Prior knowledge:
By secondary structure, this protein is of the alpha/beta class. It has helices spanning 2-15, 25-29, 32-44, 55-63, 75-83, 115-125, 137-148, 166-176, 184-193, 229-239, 242-250; strands at 18-24, 47-53, 69-72, 87-103, 129-131, 159-161, 179-183, 200-204, 211-219, 252-253, 256-257, 260-261. Strands 1, 2, 3, 4, 5, 6, 7, 8, 9 and 12 form a ten-stranded mixed β-sheet that branches. Helix 7 links the parallel strand 5 and strand 6.
Amino acid sequence: MKKILLSALVALSLSAAELKMATTTSTDNTGLLDALKPLYEKESGNTLKWVAVGTGAALKLGEDCNADVLFVHSPKVEKEFVNKGFGVDRTPVMYNDFIIVADKSLADKFKGKSLKESLELIRTEKMPFISRGDKSGTDNKEKGLWKNIGGVPEKESWYIQSGQGMLASIKIAEEKKGVILTDRGTYIKYEADAKANPNLVIVSEGDDSLKNFYSVIAVNPKHCKNVNYEETSKFIKWLVSDETLKAISDFKLLDKPLFIVDAKSRKE
């Protein structure tokens, strides 16, 4: 009996894998990955480990063969990554949206203004604006919005690049009594941490250009011989299974959903 048990344990240890994921600070900061990790590990027998950085840095980790799978949110650069042969099996998972939040003392100035008008107001009044400045999905979106109204104000003193993750950057905006673009999920986490009484409040939301799509990508085994493509493929199928998508839909803070699943509907 002992020999049978020992053989079973050895077989289990040999079949188990450590899956390395590079992801964004928003999936990490919100607590979503902490909620999904035990579900995946229980079902697969594998160990899931991740590093949370900006999307640009996550893609570089994949390109350099330092991750098996990527969970990111910047569609344009994701597609470039796949087209260059660094990634395969790019699969939509979920979305939330970007919002502009500002110190409570500034909120009235934004009332009734469109997204474009809100950005022009920030520029005109030189409100302290915190940019991630890290080539993350949020950073790419924010700079794209500025480009649409005349250019990124990188040389302006009121435009402050933090070089940090989303939650840390939100806290800098709070300290500066300023303004920041954030994904809604991380803002809800910030709001929950503030006991539903945050110093930064939503001042611009709902524009069609502000949807924030997340996808999962396998690192291409033809580019990186060391990646565990077999288990990564299984992980991707698990992530977009009905059971996991329901867990993502049910993930809430302050009774607010942080993500909307769209793996079954989005076509790109």
